[in-house]
Specification:
mainly alpha; 2 domains; two-stranded parallel ribbon; 45% helix; flat
Length: 98
């Protein structure tokens, strides 16, 4: 599917218990294949819920937040964003255990 543009796309996004798992990046690639938003449909009751549950990877979060207000990339900003994301994920994981 990568590299193709489609007029319509029907996505079935059930929660999977084994590979291949849906990732935020995979969802983006699939959704970006259609020309217009009205050409994208989700199949099933849980598709939207599963799509909303997707999270960016720590590396993507760091890259996205590594740019300053002038659009210049900064290793310092990226490293800080990476550290913040790792801590946030650890807190979320810990609060889920309680």
């Amino acid at each position: 599917m990568q590299g193709r543009t489609l007029p319509r796309l029907l996505l079935n996004l059930p929660r999977r218990t084994r590979m291949p798992w849906l990732t935020a990046q995979g969802l983006y690639v699939m959704a970006s294949r259609v020309r217009c938003a009205h050409g994208l449909r989700l199949l099933g009751d849980c598709g939207l819920e599963n799509a909303r549950a997707q999270k960016h990877t720590t590396g993507l979060h760091a890259w996205n937040h590594g740019y300053d207000g002038r659009g210049q990339y900064s290793d310092v900003l990226a490293a800080a964003a990476h550290k913040q994301h790792v801590l946030m994920r650890a807190r979320q994981k810990e609060s889920g255990r309680r």
